[in-house]
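Predict the holo structure. Ligand: magnesium ion.
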Amino acid sequence: MNHDRLTVVIAAYNEADSLPALQPRIAAVLDALARDGVDGQVLYVDDGSQDATWAVMQQLAAADRRIALLRLSRNFGKELALTAGLDRVEEGAALILDADGQDPPELIPQFVAKWREGFDDVHGTRMGREGEGWLKRATAHTFYRVIGALSKTPIPADTGDFRLLSERALHALQQLRERHRFMKGLFGWVGFNRVAIAYHREPRVAGRSKFNLWRLWNLALEGITSFSTAPLRLATYLGLLSALVAFLYGVAIIVKALLWGDPVAGWPTMMSVILFLGGVQLIALGVIGEYLGRLYDEAKQRPLYLVDSWQPARTVLPAQR
Ligand code: UDP
Ligand code: MG
């Protein structure tokens, strides 16, 4: 039988309570896929958790030969933890799943079916988000619209990291070594044949979300600065606009002075113009600073993440059988 390799990559940060609930569901799916000729593995990445996540992972790996474990030296954040996991997948497809059960593993066979039809990037698009407040849903909704309008790279709306990448898409992604990683954008940049699968995002099985509004705001900034230089251009247009307004206003003042003389006045206008321009200049400087700071991080050329330990799966590859 023709064997396809699939590695489920899961980044987990303080998910000791979620993993034991998730793993049996994944194992059941992998068993079913195995009957269908798919060699499934699971790769758990411990993103520097402070709770018992690593110990739980080791218990799970001891009980199932298909589980590989990777532990990072500290918490690097989800995007880098995923990168670390995906870097370890050498052959076959990779499927990214959240550790909290919000992306139902039971959908994996649908992703695999699309992959076997020849798609390289099968991504889950959320139809609804249960257990998440209106503020998170509203901000997420706005964010996807803004980034969609600003970015030249296609970034599908309402699409998280729940996706399957074929081997060639994965190898392409592995070549993108930028430090500021906005994964949704990187997936879009890779391209190839893409297809969406609609699904309902479930509430977390345990624990709480690590992404509060502030972290989401920073993620949004990351996305926009990584995939668009529109804010920089905005500074140019703001400058042009205020120069034009200033010119017209200058002409008006001169004409007025010539016609009616020039009694000294205008303290309020002067103050408001100075303050307004000061504000605009600081905003433009801030925008430049955002890009410059990222350039600085990029220039340091540090490794993206550091590995504490790596424990490969104990399954025998079909080629070695
Ligand atoms: N995560 C991670 N490192 C972090 C934060 C989160 O690996 O620094 C993982 C987390 O364990 C989970 C996934 O990223 O598997 C999504 O996190 P979360 O559920 O908190 O985000 P939300 O679903 O609320 O957007
Ligand atoms: Mg979640």
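The radius of gyration is 25 Å. The first helix runs from residue 19 to 34.
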